[in-house]
């Protein structure tokens, strides 16, 4: 099992960051068949072969993702895509 952890700082404030994260999670849910469940400022995401969370803080967003065996082979690509998507969403 591969563990991916990505954190990005922001200066948007918690509410604005959450709005951007909600839009990003909605798009990724459609593209990658993710199931997302919000619990306060944290969203749990799941799909076949992967599960994790996105936590929105006052000045940072942290993504934690565990990949099953089949997706582990693409771990580097998945991490790069998460970093790119976060950078774009927080710009």
Work out the count of structural domains. Answer: 1
Write out the strand line-up for the largest beta sheet, numbering strands in chain order: 1-5-4-3-2
Order of helices and strands: EHEEEEHH
Instruction: Summarize the main sheet.
Output: 5 strands, antiparallel
Q: What's the overall average pLDDT, rounded? A: 92
Rg over CA atoms, rounded to whole Å, is 12 Å
Low-confidence stretches: none
3D shape: globular
CATH class: Alpha Beta
- What is the share of helical residues? 40-55%
- How many beta strands in the DSSP annotation? 5
The fold-level CATH name is TATA-Binding Protein
Structural class, from secondary structure content? alpha+beta
- Terminal CA distance reads 31 Å
Which percent range describes the beta-strand content? 35-45%
The second-level CATH architecture is 2-Layer Sandwich
* Count of DSSP-assigned helices: 3
Helices and strands in order:
Elements: E1 2-9, H1 14-32, E2 35-39, E3 42-47, E4 50-56, E5 60-67, H2 69-72, H3 75-90
Antiparallel strand pairs: 1-5, 2-3, 3-4, 4-5
Helix pairs in contact: 1-3
Pfam families: PHA_gran_rgn
InterPro entries: PHA_gran_rgn
Protein name: Putative polyhydroxyalkanoic acid system protein
Description:
The protein has helices at 14-32, 69-72, 75-90; strands at residues 2-9, 35-39, 42-47, 50-56, 60-67. It is built from three helices and five strands; from the N terminus they run E-H-E-E-E-E-H-H. The chain is globular, with a radius of gyration of 12 Å. A five-stranded antiparallel sheet has the order 1-5-4-3-2. It is an alpha+beta fold and 91 residues long. Strand 2 (35-39) and strand 3 form a beta hairpin. It is 43% helix and 37% strand. The chain has one domain: TATA-Binding Protein. The relative contact order is 0.26.
